[in-house]
Amino acid sequence: MKHPRFEDLSAFIDGELQDEEMMEVKAHIDVCKECRDRVEFLLALDKGIRETQEKWDVDRFTSEVMERIHPPVGRRNLILKVATIGIAASIIFGFAFTNIRDSYRENLNKEKYQLITQHQIISSGDMGIIFISERK
Amino acid sequence: MKRLLLILILLLNLGLVDKPSKTLLDEYIASIDPPVDYSATMEIKVGGSSDKVDVLKIGNYTSLSLKYNNSRIYVIKRGEEYSIVSDVPVNIGALLWAYRFSKDTSLILKNYDVIFNSYETIGKIKTVKISFNPKYETGIKRTVWISESPKVLIKLEDRDYNGNLIRTKEMIDITFNPSPAKKKVIESLFNKGVKIPERETLLSPLYASRELGFNLIIPENLPSGYQLIGADIPQDGVGQLVFTDGIGFISLYQIRVPWWARENTPPEEKDVIEWEDSGVHFILVGDLSPDKLVNMVNNKKR
What we know:
heterodimer, A: 136 residues, mainly alpha, 2 domains, 84% helix, 0% strand, B: 302 residues, alpha+beta, outer membrane lipoprotein receptor (LolB), chain A, Phosphorylase Kinase, domain 1, 11-stranded antiparallel beta sheet, 5-stranded antiparallel beta sheet, 18 strands, 24% helix, 43% strand
């Protein structure tokens, strides 16, 4: 028998060949040191990958990375909601703040005219009585 | 004979010319509250406002009254007490202490030369015209006309240093010794009104600062002749520093601004000078031109 292809050896290790093919490859390995060495290499590689998978939980890691790149629809909606609420709250707060500020400034302006009248009462002496009559 | 009469008139006039400022000033102060009963209409013009106030001085009562919408406001003085009769809320606290400070003769003499000007007849009343000439550019040119006998202030006129009219008042239709029956009317009105005692003094800036919860800032560059006479709290949260040279008044109002409404703006030369600095809003008003008022606030001390 000629040497099996690398893919066939890999499929043999993974048990993915038909029974008949499995038996043929096994018979060859038993007599062919070169192919046996290849199988051992492939087994070692497979073991290393499995150990790494166990240690790092590659599947979970991959899924997390993928989630971040394409968040699931449910989470994406939550983030969108939070962001929208945040922006809306900022706008409302901004408007409210501006309104309160404007209202304060308006009152300050009214107060200013009352104080000017008060000063005119003072500086006009008894003539200031006409400003008293103008006071609301 | 004519020459003799001329000399006699001249000598009489010289008597007035020679009167020292203090005597003329005392005559002026006495003419504001004369010891004679009279009734008159006082025509008043202040800036763009004008009005007619009825004045009645009878016994120890002096009543000022004027029309307000469909009613009348009465401010009646008896001794050291005032009574206000009004349908609308009226705050005259400031008038009561300002009236007192405007009679500070030593301060007036410090900043003004009081001189006899001439004799003038207003209506049918012969008056003595007295001028208050300011010693500084920041002063006011006041002219008063006082009836010869009895001595009553008939007319008063204030102009700024450049001659622009600030305010005038003139007694028109003055009659002496009004009917004694009017006294009963005034007496009953006085008893009916809200009593306000005349204020002797203003607050100290320190006391006002403590009451307000922030330090009132006192300008260093006061206009020539002006001095700080005290502080007041005319409204909640509003501090006021009052300056006078005896005739002119300046008020510097200071209002603490909440953190969320603060802004920093410099003083500008406008009719009313206002600015904001370190959370305090300042409003400066007075009888001086805006450029002189702005000078006042260039340097401030706490």
